[in-house]
Design goal:
Elements: H1 4-9, H2 15-18, H3 22-66, H4 109-113, H5 128-146, H6 150-173, H7 178-193, H8 200-225, H9 234-271, H10 283-297
Helix pairs in contact: 3-5, 3-6, 5-6, 6-7, 6-10, 7-8, 7-9, 8-9, 9-10
Length: 301
């Protein structure tokens, strides 16, 4: 395996880290993963608001240029923040606006100590926050333990974080932005360039195949049925995963994602009494299947 980049840079002396007891390494990695989960929650909450702001500004600009009426009053973001980003403003209660202190942002523990309620207005805090933090922490630790080489574990963790974010965001909002898919593609091609998981040619082939196979399916569906049957972000997501696993295993990913999607629709019809033909987000099934196949390719499972 070619790890020239990491060997030549030699920026960090990792011997100090490896001299630590394994139990301490695992604790540090787990805490780091929990904190990453806290940030993932921020991304899941704020990205739709950022896009809604951008859409609002675009519509307002278009109506001004065309001399049309101003944007309808009912269109707007829920919390009325006009300059929201992933870093600003500071986290606050969505109900009363209370600015959270550092001790309100401790992963999992703050949710428990606050009894899942805002410190000031006592409005309910979603269980999503500790669940995502816990999944992130456990998944991060799993990747660290499963991949022996530090470069492999580092990039496996980054892949896991991106796919976890995409899974939750798409499941909640059916939003699969390129701002998440593009880093995934870059990461996969970079790993291929460095032969971290697969070689460069296999990574490029998997990237191209992953994109065009779903793009062709979406194109044919719209041509035949006359409406969109697949989200525009799904080809980019699959191409990013394909860059990690190559063509053959990208086909397995599509197959297992389809099985998961069918199983979900059947369960929804049986247990939730919803229309079986209602739209569902396909991104989560691609992400889950892709990560499991990635683990299989690397002999982790």
């Amino acid at each position: 395996m070619n790890n020239n980049l990491f060997n030549s840079l030699n920026i960090l002396d990792l011997s100090v880290w490896y001299d630590l007891p394994l139990s301490l390494q695992y604790i540090v990695v787990l805490i780091f993963g929990l904190c990453a989960g806290s940030f993932i929650n921020v991304v899941i909450y704020r990205l739709p608001l950022i896009f809604e702001n951008e859409l609002k500004e675009y519509i307002e600009e278009q109506t001004k240029q065309e001399g049309g009426p101003c944007i309808p009053q009912e269109f707007g973001i829920k919390d009325k923040k006009q300059n929201i980003s992933l870093s600003k403003p500071s986290s606050a209660c969505g109900n009363c606006g209370y600015m959270l202190r550092w001790y309100d942002n401790i992963p999992i523990l703050s949710w428990i100590f606050l009894k899942a309620k805002c410190r000031i207005c006592h409005s309910k805090i979603s269980i999503q926050y500790p669940v995502v933090e816990l999944i992130s922490g456990i998944g991060t630790l799993f990747c660290y333990i499963a991949f022996n080489y530090i470069g492999q574990s580092f990039f496996a963790i980054l892949l896991f974080w991106l796919l976890l974010t995409i899974t939750i965001l798409d499941a909640k909002t059916q939003l699969l932005p390129n701002e998440l898919s593009q880093p995934l593609i870059f990461l996969g091609l970079f790993c291929g360039w460095q032969n971290i998981f697969i070689d460069a040619n296999t990574a490029i082939a998997g990237f191209l195949f992953g994109f065009f196979i779903l793009w062709i399916v979406a194109f044919l569906f719209k041509l035949i049925r006359g409406y969109e049957g697949l989200g525009s972000g799904d080809p980019y997501l699959l191409s990013g995963i394909g860059a990690f696993i190559g063509i053959d295993y990208t086909l397995y990913t599509i197959f297992f994602a389809s099985i998961l999607g069918i199983f979900f629709v059947i369960c929804r019809k049986i247990f939730m009494s919803k229309d079986i033909y209602g739209a569902i987000a396909f991104g989560p099934f691609i992400s889950i299947s892709g990560f499991l196949v990635f683990l299989y390719v690397n002999h982790v499972i």
